[in-house]
Amino acid sequence: xxxxxxxxxxxxxxxxxxxxxxxxxxxxxxxxxxxxxxxxxxxxxxxxxxxxxxxxxxxxxxxxxxxxxxxxxxxxxxxxxxxxxxxxxxxxxxxxxxxxxxxxxxxxxxxxxxxxxxxxxxxxxxxxxxxxxxxxxxxxxxxxxxxxxxxxxxxxxxxxxxxxxxxxxxxxxxxxxxxxxx
Length: 182
What we know:
- It is globular and about 40 Å long.
- With 182 residues, it is α/β, with parallel strands linked by helices.
- It has a single domain, classed as Rossmann fold, CATH 3.40.50.300.
- It has 9 helices and 5 strands; from the N terminus they run βαβαααβαβαααβα.
- Helix 2 crosses helix 3 and helix 2 packs across helix 4 (67-79).
């Protein structure tokens, strides 16, 4: 079984569901976005998507594109975690840094319409948007238009890619098959 896993996918693709699945198997889930949220809170900023993107871009501009991965890796290493799932990886530098430290990457693919439906049903603070705004965020984050974010390029470098278009049971089965293949 893999010691370190990385999850790649666009907003609403099922990354959190994958993380919950792996957590139930004893993996510790670490989100690179937690570093961004901590910094945004420290600055007194509202935790909305645009603020979080701006803070993440600033941190990466100042410290390098792999900065968030480096921070969470150090935390995992210092805590002595043995089985970890890394979430919220959004650029190739982060992915490559974690791969260099032994992470196996799973890419989750879902079309935009289904992802938007899922986002609307979960209603996190950053999800209260219309479809056109969602598509704008999607384009910016997935194709590299937002500094430090290029999910499409990350998906290309994943060790395995799966479709998440069926039920949660189907998705869990696909994740289980990935683990069994390692």
